[in-house]
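Give me the fold.
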Amino acid sequence: MAKSAKLDANGYRKFGIRDKLAYAAGDLGCCMSFSLKSTVQIFWTQYMGVSLVTFGILMMIVQVWDAINDPVIGSMVDADKHVYKRNKFLQYIWIGSIGLLVGGAAMFLPIPSAPMVLKYVLFVVGYILWDAFYTIANVPYGSVMSLITTDPAERASLSVFRSVGSMAGNMVPPIILPFLIYDGNQNLKGDVVFWAALIMGLCGFVAFQFMIKNTVIRVEQNVNCNEDAPKFNVFKAFGSFFKNRAAVGATLAPVGQFIGMYGASYATTAMYQSYFNAVQLSGIMGLISYIPMFAFMPFATKIVMKYGKKESVAVGSIVTMIGYALLLVVPMPPNTTGMLIWAACSLVAGVGGGLYSAVSWSLMADAMDYGEWKFGVREEGTTYALHSFFRKLAQGIGPSLGLFVAAALGFVEANKGNQTFEVALRMRYQAAAFYFLSGVLQFIGLAIVYNLDRKTMAKMQADLAARKAK
């Protein structure tokens, strides 16, 4: 006879490892599609033949739209009062998972001989569709954490497991793919990228279904069907978001991270192609920066409960800045030794960012509580959507800026992985500079702007509990 699940005081399955694995699977589903984003620039410039400047403009266009559709979808989710069998957030995730299965592969159709104008149209339309379904899945996914549990330690553990799912989705493909999609001359094989995207989409779809089936919603959602309720106002939503200092700080940190990471992305690939001449090893070298996250994960919940989330991640952001500064100032010869020095400096930065990566998503869940505490209104979908809006803007500004800078520094896309030594050296310094900018912005967001220190968190939780008790 099957053992019955243990229930809490409200009749729900008790929070446990099943919830954590399910939440990890959700981000795995997102990242199996998202992890190919760094390949988009190389695919469309070096394989499809679009110039760096033109593609930078196209990227900016689609990312601005991408950023706009996040609050639109978030407000749509908040305004949806229909009672779904599986919860409205999970329903939207289910819809998004289907679209991602097709959209991700459509972004990498291998047709390099097509007319250039047709390539522009295919990229813009394909990217918008792919990203719309990603948003439909990702915005509700980020919002649903606050409804799984209200306990700070449990939220921290969900954030840790989300990071596990994120790492699996962002680490495994980048390690394996370079060996499959690059030839011996450091050039991309576009037809292989298409099949890789299709397989990764299937894996992501399975992960989403596991998450949906095993997620329990324990926090009551207030469904107000009052026809006289005020309609969504985009200006009011932005105003409320910027008044929420915790949400702004928790958003500025990943914005800085993405501007730096994506701004450095193209230059980093070019550096491994033409400076170190070992692009197949780029994923393995990148894996080293994830090691600290693995080290922190077993202790992340204990660390933040003892010292506080803000206090812990603020100290880490200082170490991150130091690690990225080393990328700029430490000499790195164009050989295996230089590649290992780069990896070592990245490891230092990873030590600082390891704990933040493990608990970053719980900062936004706490920021949603902060908005309810300060202003008396709880808007999970809208708050997370605006958080996602600025992240997406950074994801557009970063790669576009990186492409513009690479073009200005003399990168020639027709040469693919065979740039001159002078250009390759410039790519090495461009990548380091963008990473350092990332570290500075993360420090400002976490140490200066984000205001939910340990003392404030305790007062907020006590006040919210007292309100709910009434």
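DSSP finds 17 helices and no strands in the chain.
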